[in-house]
Design the sequence.
């Protein structure tokens, strides 16, 4: 990792409990001649002086060499998408407020030792693959999103079961009738994919997961495919159908007839600072209550 001179600070919105930690962080960084760049709302939360350098959430990845994030997995997923959109390679050190997160796995007690390790170049930095979804409408690019967890194609609340054709690596895979389809990264395997009956996949595995949601045919099972295979999902719709595509559960839009969602591995991965005190399996045991 290159020398760190600017650290972006961002907290979950309205997380009042983070105010004191943010002020302490700013002082700790200043004492080491490192500039703290506050996300705009986070600056107000911390009560920093009005002349302190701030940045919007969208611009923050371009203003710093490291992001320290206080909150939970949802806040981290949102920032991961912004880093990808900016084409940046900024690591995230995620600190969880409350119960341990799958992604924000560093505790408050570990914050400063972890930050010290990052500055010394001694911290473990994990690469988490991401996915890019490009929606094509009338043979023209309509929208593009990059996600850390998953792309979900699902029916509307009152619509019928939906049909989709799925192509993997240029080969026809199947035509599925279901409530929807989850296309997930290994990181996203413990999110909606897990709730829908998909497998847990270690984040070091280079793969993509396809998990149907409540399939009409019980033989339509989740499948793990190579990460470099492009996935094409084409919903088969008529005027009565409502089909939506969502990205990491944070944004989305309705699909139109003949839309095709092209999904492939993103050009860049998220860089995530790992806890020195626990493994991935430690996190699984605590979050999923294994062996309890």
Sequence:
């Amino acid at each position: 990792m290159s020398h760190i001179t600017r650290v972006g600070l961002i907290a979950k919105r309205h997380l009042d409990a983070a105010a004191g930690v943010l002020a302490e962080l700013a002082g700790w960084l200043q004492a080491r001649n490192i500039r703290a760049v506050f996300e705009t709302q986070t600056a107000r939360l911390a009560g920093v002086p009005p002349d302190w350098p701030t940045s919007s959430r969208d611009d923050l990845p371009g203003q710093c060499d490291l992001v320290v994030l206080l909150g939970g997995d949802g806040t981290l997923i949102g920032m991961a998408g912004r880093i990808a959109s900016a084409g940046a390679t900024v690591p995230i050190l995620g600190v969880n407020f409350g119960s341990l997160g799958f992604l924000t796995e560093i505790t408050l007690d570990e914050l400063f030792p972890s930050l010290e390790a990052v500055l010394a170049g001694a911290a473990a930095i994990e690469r988490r693959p991401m996915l890019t979804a490009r929606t094509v409408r009338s043979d023209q690019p309509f929208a593009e999103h990059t996600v850390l967890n998953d792309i979900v194609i699902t029916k509307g609340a009152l619509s019928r079961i939906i049909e989709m054709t799925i192509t993997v690596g240029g080969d026809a895979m199947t035509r599925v009738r279901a409530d929807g389809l989850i296309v997930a990264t290994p990181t996203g395997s413990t999110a909606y994919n897990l709730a829908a009956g998909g497998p847990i996949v270690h984040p070091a595995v280079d793969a993509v997961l396809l998990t149907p949601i409540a399939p009409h045919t019980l033989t339509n099972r989740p499948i793990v495919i190579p990460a470099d295979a492009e996935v094409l999902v084409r919903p088969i719709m008529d005027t009565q159908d409502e089909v939506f595509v969502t990205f990491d559960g944070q944004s989305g839009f309705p699909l139109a007839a003949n839309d095709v969602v092209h999904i492939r591995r993103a050009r860049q991965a998220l860089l995530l600072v790992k806890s020195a005190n626990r493994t991935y399996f430690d996190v699984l045991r605590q979050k999923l209550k294994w062996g309890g």
